[in-house]
Amino acid sequence: MYFMKVTVSFRHLEHTPALDERIHEKSEKIAKYLDGNLHLKWSCEVRDGREHYAEIEVLGPGFDFHAEAHSENLYKTIDLAVAKIEKQVQKKKEKMRNRKKMPHKDIEILDPESAWLEHEPDIDDMAS
Q: For the chain, which residues make up each domain, given as ranges?
C-alpha cells in the first residue's frame, strides 16, 4: 500500500477549508498518475496584494517534479500548476515507453542451430 503526504503553506492569504479541499482534490489527481509513496509540497501566496502564486513539488521514488504558476485567481493558479505537473509526468512516461520499444542495435539474436553454423573456429580451437 502506498501513502501520500501533502504539505501546504500559505503566505499573505487566508487558509480556508475550500482551499484545503481543492488542494486535496488536485493532489489525488496527481497521485493517480504515479506509483509509490509521494510527498506533495504546495506553496500558495499572494504577491503585491493581487497576484496569486502556486508552487508544487512532487517527490517520490525515482522522480522529482516541480511546477509554478501565477494568475489573478488562486483556483486558476492551482489548475495551471497541476497542468504543468501533468505534462511533466506524461513526458517522463512517454520517454519510458519509447525506451522499452527501442530495439538494441548492437545485439543480434540468432536461432541456436544457425548460430553454430556461422561460427568460424579459431586457430586455438583447431589445435585442441
A: 4-101
Neighbours of 63 (CB within 10 A): 14
Q: Does the predicted model carry a pTM greater than 0.70?
A: yes
Return the CATH number of the domain spanning residue range 4-101.
3.30.160.100
CA 113 to chain centre: 45
What's the confidence (pLDDT) of residue 105? Answer: 62
Q: In the chain, which stretches have pLDDT less than 50?
A: none
Kindly report the number of other CB atoms within 10 A of residue 68's CB atom.
Answer: 14
Helices marked H in the chain — which ranges?
17-33, 74-101, 112-117, 123-127
Query: Taking Cα atoms as reference points, which of 76, 13, 14 lies closest to residue 49?
Result: 13
Rounded Cα–Cα distance for residues 94 and 124 (Å): 49
At 93 the pLDDT is 86
